[in-house]
Amino acid sequence: MAKPTIGFIGLGLMGSAMVECLQANGYPLVVIANRSRGNVDAAIARGATEAKTSAELAAASDIVMLCIDTSANVEARIYGEDGVLAGIREGAMVIDFGTSIPASTQRIGADLAEKGAGYLDAPLGRTPAHAKDGLLNIMCAGDKDVFDAAKPVLDVLGENVFHLGKLGTGHTIKLINNFFAMTTACAMSEAFAMADSAGIERQAVYDVMSAGPLRSGMMDFIKSYAIDGGIDLAFSVNNAKKDLGYYHQMAADLGTPSRMVGAAKGVLEAAADAGRGDTMVPEMVDFLTSRKG
Predict the structure, then answer these.
(1) Are 292 and 193 in contact (CB under 8 A)?
(2) How many angstroms separate the CA atoms of 77 and 168, rounded?
């Protein structure tokens, strides 16, 4: 049986690794340039074809995949002039692998359904290296029949593929996950900065905290930079700030304003405003120690 043609929008670090994995597994690809041509040209060299517009890409594809940075950019690709919605075929499906606002996801899903197309939100865990080897964690949600149809392809990309429920649930869980992760990261960064102010060795603080129930992978990511000088969490301050902004908006949309997000969101915004937006989250330790006094 012929494999479905996949149209892929967003060949950044993660998206280009996913495209390489799909091509290695024999899937025909249609790609489109977004911000730069390097990864698009590499995919074409491996046999992909190039579309000039999102509508053209959608018309040529059985499955459209998006791996782009913001909800606004997803909407632009879906609704823009010559967008995916204009070209999507009845019976096709669209999968958003990014981190988007759930209310936006649900609206796009309803509009695609009117065209006879399915929509899944499927935010990702792990790194581009995992993506290249088909070892991502995929938090997928949407109509179960659409998920079942997509699962053979998702299994190529992911080691752990979850179906979490109705459309928008994947993005909701991803935002809750990132809220908790970035709050922990900022709190641990401040703990090390406070230890510096008190004249206490960072290692001593870590030894005590990690010996009890506070020990976590996120704590160790921050410790790796603060004590060992390594960056094991390649996630930028700007991305963290965006995700906490989305979490804040999601909470308001749900009528359950967050009482906890303000502190982490505020310190990330302050770091971005100070020109540190492109630094990695573990480097928040440097920002917080620089503000001493």
Answers:
(1) yes
(2) 18
